[in-house]
């Protein structure tokens, strides 16, 4: 990957909070937005800063003709409150043309492969970001990892019908991989534990790899997608064109996909 770093802030200034770093990365990404663009609008706390910034620039008249395709119901609500005109993904004229998507990520490796979807929106994110001409990922430094799966689960969206069966198939396929385990994601509601349900009415299987994935990511992706009942997974391989990293020291690094 190629990279470019901005200069640090003056010494003596206090270290920025993680949320401030997210905002810095998001605002830098919005500099790529041009009038007339259709945007893929990401989901999560980092992407939320980009929505607010785009909304501010639209209100100031700086981004005429900009509209967005939201990657989740939460983003749809946030973007419409921010005044961003919304579009569906595709229509009578055929597939959508998305000039630029901006979204956060849970993990980024040295090849700019990502884990996304710990917020549960991976399917719409992959559909929209995969359809775009450019995909700019915005993260704070804590998201950079040596191997995908180092800091948490790889989410896999599965249909609810026979979900325990699909979980069993996933376990069977990946059982040989070091430190592997899998479970269905649940959420606490009042005192009870319930299945987590995505915007598409599906469930999430969480795949864990102690110390990250040591196998071939493409092979793992292909094996997962061959399991009937699996809808999509949260490894975004080779999709990011640029990753904007807000560093703890206040600098910003741009990492570009190798041509
Ligand atoms: O993939 C996602 C949601 O499905 C998010 O982009 C990812 O979870 C990062 O979230 P945050 O910006 O809040 O750290």
TrEMBL record:
UniProt region (Disordered), positions on chain: 1-21
Keywords carried by this UniProt record: Isomerase
Presence of the UniProt keyword Transmembrane helix in the record: no
Pathway: Carbohydrate degradation; pentose phosphate pathway; D-ribose 5-phosphate from D-ribulose 5-phosphate (non-oxidative stage): step 1/1
Catalytic activity, reaction form: aldehydo-D-ribose 5-phosphate = D-ribulose 5-phosphate
Keyword DNA damage: no
EC number annotated for this UniProt entry: 5.3.1.6
Alphabetical list of Pfam families matching this protein: Rib_5-P_isom_A
EC top class, as a word: isomerase
PANTHER family hit by this protein: RIBOSE-5-PHOSPHATE ISOMERASE 2-RELATED, RIBOSE-5-PHOSPHATE ISOMERASE 3, CHLOROPLASTIC-RELATED
Family: Belongs to the ribose 5-phosphate isomerase family.
This protein's name: ribose-5-phosphate isomerase
């Amino acid at each position: 990957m190629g990279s470019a770093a901005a200069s640090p802030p003056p010494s003596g200034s206090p270290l920025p909070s993680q949320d401030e770093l997210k905002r810095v990365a998001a605002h830098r990404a919005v500099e790529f937005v041009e009038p007339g663009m259709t945007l893929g609008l990401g989901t999560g706390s980092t992407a939320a800063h980009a929505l607010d910034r785009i909304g501010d620039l639209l209100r100031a008249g700086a981004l005429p003709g900009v509209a967005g395709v939201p990657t989740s119901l939460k983003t749809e609500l946030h973007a419409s409150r921010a005044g961003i005109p919304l579009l569906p993904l595709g229509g009578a004229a055929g597939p959508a043309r998305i000039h630029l998507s901006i979204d956060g990520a849970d993990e980024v490796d040295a090849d700019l492969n990502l884990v996304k979807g710990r917020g549960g929106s991976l399917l719409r994110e992959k559909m929209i970001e995969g359809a775009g001409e450019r995909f700019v990922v915005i993260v704070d430094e804590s998201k950079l990892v040596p191997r995908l799966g180092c800091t948490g689960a790889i989410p896999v969206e599965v249909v609810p019908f026979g979900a325990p069966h699909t979980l069993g198939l996933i376990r069977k396929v990946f059982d040989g991989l070091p430190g592997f385990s899998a479970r269905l994601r649940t959420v606490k509601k009042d005192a009870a534990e319930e299945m987590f349900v995505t915007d598409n009415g599906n469930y999430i299987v969480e795949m864990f790899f102690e110390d990250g994935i040591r196998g071939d990511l493409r092979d793992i992706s292909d094996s997962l997608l061959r399991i009937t009942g699996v809808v999509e997974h949260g490894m975004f391989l080779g999709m990011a064109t640029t990753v904007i990293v807000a560093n703890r020291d206040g600098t910003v690094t741009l990492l570009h996909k190798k041509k």
